Amino acid sequence: MLYIKPPRGDIQLSELHECVITRINYFLLRYQQDPAVSQNDLKFEYLQIGTALDRIGHFILRLLSLESQLVKEFIISSEATFTIERLEFLSSEQIVQLIKTTLRHIDEVDELSKDDTLWKIQIKYIFNQIKSAFKSAHIRDFKHDVSCTEYILKIPFEMCVSLVAKREVQLERGKVIVPCGKWKRFLRCFFEAHVKREIRKMESKGFGGEIITDQRLIELRDIVHKKLLKCTTNGSNKGKISLTDLNKVKTLFPPCMGYLYSNLKINHRLSHHARFNFSLFLKDIGMTLNESIAFWQEEYSKPSKCGGKCSHSWQKDGAKYIYSIRHLYGLEGKRANYYSPSCSKIQNNNLGPSEEGGCPFLTFDHCKLKNSLDPSVIQNQETFEKIMFLSSQNKPKAACEFYRKTLMKTASSTSLTDKEHKTPVEYFVILHKHSSLDFR
């Protein structure tokens, strides 16, 4: 039920490959409706909950997600939903058996830190309570009545922060009261919290660097990342983005990237991190390597208007810039796959005094934010005031979502309008689908 410990033993590389690819293909088909994937691509023996192959697929995907925020968020969300969906097809006896396996795996994990030990105690408490409810025949399956309160869990709020934020549960002296009718909702939330916690532990121990040294995992990582990126970005675009397209597609850029583009056009220079992020954004929306080099050469060949802050130029440093761009495309250095940062990463980034960028809805003042928005939005006083209010309340995600949906107010497809974005690239893709622009 909860992935605590990877399985022991050996597995053929070809079977490991099939196990992971089947899992990511299922996620893309089930949760992204990827037209490039069909049920014929799936081998369901790799997806049966609780089996060694199921655990292998989960733990390898968890490992391969470390280098990309986009992949990480997709894997965490998909794995949580996938687990709960499968539980709905199990009998109470099968669920009790899964809980017993989870509890046994917890006891088998050694060398725990103080925080890990506390987390382990909480997990055991939660699953012992759930097991008791199923054994008593009070809960027959996870289609349990959502209004039922006969069995109650009292747990630390950090184990289900999203339920607390949505006021779906009660707080009592620092503990969250979760009745059995909401256990399914809680388990999904708790599963996400657990996987996020385990990924943070791997990141803190530098496991990502170790993966790079194993060519077999590098190849598998690249396949997974490309599949997900193709589905969420280029696979959804109407064509590649060329240098000549930029002026007409800039209206589809999210404000954070639109601001960088405007600054670049005015000053012909960007700070290091801003250039890094904007280059990745252009790459991920479909700009080829050669087009990207031509784009930066055009701007950096012009005199800088940064007031002496930047002495670099294409004439003097062109070779360095070309190497840097090739590096971002995975063709130099460690040949890693780099991806445009997520919205949450941009929002949490601490900018230096000379750095450009950040989330406009979080870091810009009133005047600067106003200048970053589309004129059609500013002209609507009520809409503009709502955006400014959300921004002033430190709700950048809500402000950006509302802004994008305002631009799409004539959309014929509500599924597009309602779709959330977690990255600047996803913002662009959603607007691109809605627009009549086509690129060849």
From TrEMBL:
Record key words, sorted: 4Fe-4S, DNA replication, Iron, Iron-sulfur, Metal-binding, Primosome
- Listed cofactors: [4Fe-4S] cluster
Q: Note the InterPro entries from the entry.
A: DNA_primase_C, DNA_primase_lsu_euk/arc
The record, for Gene3D superfamilies, names: 1.20.930.80
Recorded GO cellular component terms are: alpha DNA polymerase:primase complex
Q: What protein does this entry describe?
A: DNA primase large subunit C-terminal domain-containing protein
A single GO BP term for this record reads: DNA replication initiation
